[in-house]
Amino acid sequence: MNPKIIIVDDEYNARFAMKKALSKEKYQIEEAENGLVALEKIPVFHPDIAFLDLNMPQMDGITALQKINELENPPLVIVVTAHGSEKIAVESMKKGAYDYIAKPYDVEELRIITRNALEKLSLVRENIQLKEKINLQDSFGELIGESKEMQSVYDMIEKVANTDVTVLITGENGTGKELVAREIHKRSSRTKGKFVPLNCASVPENLIESELFGTEKGAFTDARERKGKLEEANKGTLFLDEIGDMGLNMQAKVLRVLNDRIFERLGGNTSIQADVRFISATNKDLDIEIEEENFREDLYYRIKVVDIVMPPLRERATDIPLLTEHFLKLFCKKHKKNIEAITPKGLQLLMDYCWPGNVRELKNTIEKMVVLADSTLIDEHDLPENIVQGNVKKSYSFPSSDKVLNLWQNYINTNKVSFKNAKRAFVREFEKVFIVEKLKKHQGNITQTANTLGIPRQSLQQKLRELAINAREFTKEQ
Ligand SMILES: Nc1ncnc2c1ncn2[C@@H]1O[C@H](COP(=O)(O)OP(=O)(O)OP(=O)(O)O)[C@@H](O)[C@H]1O
Fold first, then answer.
1. What pLDDT is attached to residue 71?
2. Any stretches that span the bilayer, and where are they (predicted)?
């Protein structure tokens, strides 16, 4: 809808001149010859901006200004003063006017002031909407997002929370896998028990067994009696993060617990019941890991009775305004700063960026901006260089066939790369070229591309994540 403006001035010529000056833009314009008429028209016309002459008979401008601001959803008021009466203008701004313009004014100045006011208004409205949405969102705990991709994640959380099925959460780093696991636990009947995370990638292979199963005194030199994560998670949830990085030896032991629901501490022979719900997460494609014999197929089916796929942030850019607003609020509070909003241009740049580190990267970026910001509004100049630069379109360049052949020869002729890794590198290169070509052909449409490739849509999405290909870059308008 075109923006609406009301011009409140007792002089016909003044109203006419202003209307004419603004006629180049597509505004809907209403007139009022005094404050009383304006107060009748505003609740019906719902203007975005009111230009209010301060010098009017019947009701003076300052009184009219106060009464307008008492209305429900008042417009932004820009007072119009005579030259030399800037003092009154400043006074009126203290009383709630948004800005002022002095007569006679320059037409361009009038247009700029109008445009700025409208931009400010849309920002304010957008923020109100976002705040309302954030309040509505409380039901999904710390998880923010209302895109259809996140809606289906919420849907899955609700469905699995009150069952004891094992859940596998897959997705790139920073997409919120752990938050989802915590939310499932919070909503389950095990909520009184503990949520115990174990990062299988960060605990060294030789320690993971004692971490998980605990130890009996003397199990190895200096070993004390100690409960492991499995016992800690009794009647609760055990979250096996980065399970794709777990060694094969350990996988066999975890499989046994999943099957038999019993385990022993290291160095012990008493069987302990495992009353634990298992949720696992990984950023790896376990199908490939199985193919490469790095992951047990039987374990895979045990841990993924239900799988939840976390969408990368670039595929749900519509959630970025809400996430940004949420993190701004969070970090303003933490760092005692007062930042009202981010400009539309700044927000657009955030929405256009590809976010390889997903929500974690966005969160860190916003914290940094909040700490460094000097004003109450964050704009594009406050954004880190890599985000502004990152929006320069990436082009996918693949090695020429000669180069590929050379690479191939090098791989074969040197003994540095194992057969397994060389095969993997080539399969990836092949997949990348093939998939990008098909995406280009279907202008980034994932469903059509998946059909052409003869694989399910979800598998293609997983592949795109893994190969760091952004399908949006191949849409028609690019
Ligand atoms: N939807 C979301 N709403 C709010 N915050 C989120 C969301 N997703 C992720 N975050 C935040 O981003 C950070 C990373 O989230 P989390 O650790 O859950 O991701 P992850 O996928 O488990 O990452 P990794 O694979 O690296 O362990 C956390 O600080 C989390 O609070």
1. 92
2. none
* Ligand 1 centroid distance, CA of 42 (Å): 46
CB 37 within 8 A of CB 63: no
pLDDT digit string, tens, across residues 210-258: 999 999 887 777 778 899 999 999 999 999 999 999 999 999 999 999 9
Tokens, residue 239: 């979250």
Atom 23 of ligand 1: nearest residue by CA position: 174
| pTM, entire model | 0.63
Q: Which helix (H) or strand (E) holds 78?
A: strand 76-82
> How remote is the CA of residue 22 from the centroid of ligand 1, in Å?
48
Distance CA 404, CA 140 (A): 48
Complex prediction ipTM = 0.98
What pairing do the DSSP bridges indicate for beta strands 28-32 and 49-53? unpaired
| Domains in the chain: ranges and CATH | 4-134 (3.40.50.2300), 160-309 (3.40.50.300), 313-390 (1.10.8.60), 401-474 (1.10.10)
Candidates 139, 241, 363, 367: which one to mutate for ligand 1, based on the most atoms within 8 Å of Cβ?
A: 363
Q: How buried is residue 49: exposed, middle or buried, by Cβ count under 10 Å (0-12/13-18/19+)?
A: buried
Q: How far is CA 82 from its chain centroid?
A: 48
Which residues, other chains included, contact 343 with Cβ-Cβ below 8 Å and sequence gap of 6+? 123, 377, 378, 379, 380
